[in-house]
Amino acid sequence: MKRLFQTATLLIFFLSSYAYPDCIISAQTDKNSILVGDTINLSVNIRSKIGENCIIRDDINFGKFKLLKKELKSENRDNQKIDSYTFVLTPLELGEVSIPPIPVFTSTDAGFSDEESPLSTQEIKITVSGVIKGEEEAKLKDIFPPEKVYERTYVLIYIVLTLILLALSIYLIIRYLKKRKKQNLEEEKSKPVEPPLSPYEEAILSLKILEEKKLITKSEYKQLYLELTEILKRFIERFYGFGASEMTTYELNIYLLDHPQPNLNLNDVRGFLMQADLVKFARFKPGP
């Protein structure tokens, strides 16, 4: 393959060489096909007689190629001047693109000639391919909607763990409260239960407490008779076994008339309750 390329290069050299009385010019490239964005080296060699030069101007038209770099090397050999030009080019289009012929201008010791010589390089065709197949016919495509990217998250795990800890805390609190309540009940049961006071003992104790309040010296007769009435009804209720505490004076009198109780003087009870009602409701002031 390398030998074939060398043979083709020599063939291009001889085919692109034209004889001119004073100049011989040849041109070749290092590649015949490139990818878009790549560069290609165009080499142009000019042989001329010393004293009658053939040159290439700077304002060269490279067609569909852009000049990136230019180099010139000159040497004298066998009464001839050899100018070697190297042009670094990059394509501007895809497909089969041509490097146009490069004209050569002559100059002598007398000065530079503005007339273009009939000598120029041969047109060279280069195949420029895209990176993507069929890129020369490619069209812009619609923008795809953004894809949803799923990231690993531990939020759900944290929520579940939090709920588990919360449920465990509530369970422990309820368990502790039940245990504490049970302990309190057991402590209450373990305490020695004092025997209840008899109706007579309870009444005497209540009268002593009432006496300590000194309501008589304070002239608080209404409060005094309220508490005396409650003590009396409580004693009758406990001693005789019926709901005297919830009865009014009238109801208690009717009940005792219908249900006489042993050792209970109805007149004394009725007289006291009527006097108590006068003090409580009629603002009656009792004597000493």
Give a written overview of the molecule.
The chain is an alpha+beta fold and 288 residues long. 38% of the residues lie in helices and 27% in strands. It has 6 helices and 11 strands. The strands form 3 sheets. A 5-stranded antiparallel β-sheet has the order 1-2-4-7-6. It has a 3-stranded mixed β-sheet with strand order 3-11-8, with no helix packed on it. A hairpin with a 2-residue loop joins strand 9 and strand 10. Helix 3 runs antiparallel to helix 4, helix 4 packs antiparallel against helix 6 and helix 5 packs antiparallel against helix 6. The longest helix has 36 residues. It is rod-shaped, with a radius of gyration of 66 Å. About 5% of the residues have low confidence.
The tally of helices reads: 6
How much beta, percentage-wise? 25-35%
Question: What is the number of E strands?
Answer: 11
N- and C-termini, Cα separation: 149 Å
Q: Give the % helix.
A: 25-40%
Sequence of secondary-structure elements:
HEEEEEEEEEEEHHHHH
